[in-house]
Write a structure and sequence with these properties.
The protein is of the alpha/beta class and 227 residues long. It contains 5 helices and 15 strands. Helices cover 19% and strands 32% of the residues. The longest helix has 14 residues.
Length: 227
């Protein structure tokens, strides 16, 4: 499963999800994508999906098959990004976009953990397994664990309602006010803005923790409380 996940990168956009596939034969890419969707149905249900297939050459029957498989799972394919002119023409014939606008950085420096404005957060109701990489221009909230080998990059805060064992980068565009929270705090690596740490001391084991950049400019973890 981890090998499958490593072939896929997911990035949150204002208009939906951007899924990028690594170079591989199309049959393999399609199988990996559908297997990934079927393994996380709640995450993908109702999503608008843009697919980056790099230089893959796709013809009408292949894109129709992809669109139908996604549609059967409640997913709308709205864009296909490719370096191949053939794939671009095929996509346009099917009414699919071949360009998407890049997400603008969120002005998130004033947001706190309990002040996630509508439309600024990506909610993931699942555990992130090894090889999964999530990138989002806003806050990221995970209702599950972040396993070793999984990575989250967010321009805002990262809130994990579960165990943090992977890599998290909050405030990725330089927001030093961003925070990282988790119920169980044992990350492989943390980064807030340009401050990074592979090991960070926590006040108490088995207690929710919050990491932030302190007044000395260093990453620090402390007990996470509602107060």
């Amino acid at each position: 499963m981890d090998e499958t996940n490593s072939l896929i990168q997911i990035k949150g956009l204002r208009d939906g999800l951007l899924v990028s596939l690594n170079d591989a034969p199309w049959d393999e890419q399609l199988s990996v994508l559908i297997s990934h969707v079927d393994a996380q149905p709640a995450f993908f249900q109702g999503a608008r999906l843009a697919l980056d297939v790099s230089s893959q050459i796709l013809r009408v029957n292949e894109l129709v098959e992809l669109r139908d498989k996604l549609s059967d799972r409640g997913i709308s394919l709205w864009a296909v990004l490719s370096e191949s002119p053939t794939t671009q023409q095929t996509s346009q014939l099917l009414g699919l976009a071949t360009r998407i606008s890049k997400p603008r950085p969120e002005e998130s420096k004033d947001f706190g953990v309990d002040d996630l404005g509508e439309g600024t957060a990506l909610f993931l109701d699942r555990t992130l397994r090894s090889g999964t990489r999530i990138e989002f221009a806003g806050h990221v909230v995970v209702l599950g664990d972040v396993n070793p080998g999984a990575e989250i990059i967010a321009e805002g805060n990262v809130i994990i309602w579960g165990r943090l064992r992977g890599i998290v980068h909050a405030g990725s565009q330089g927001n030093r006010e961003a925070i990282i929270c988790a119920l169980d705090f044992s990350p492989m690596q943390l980064r807030i803005a340009d401050e990074a740490s592979e090991s960070i001391g926590t006040q108490e084991k088995d207690r929710p923790q919050v990491a932030r950049v302190n007044e000395l400019g260093k990453l620090q973890a402390e007990n996470w409380s509602a107060g």
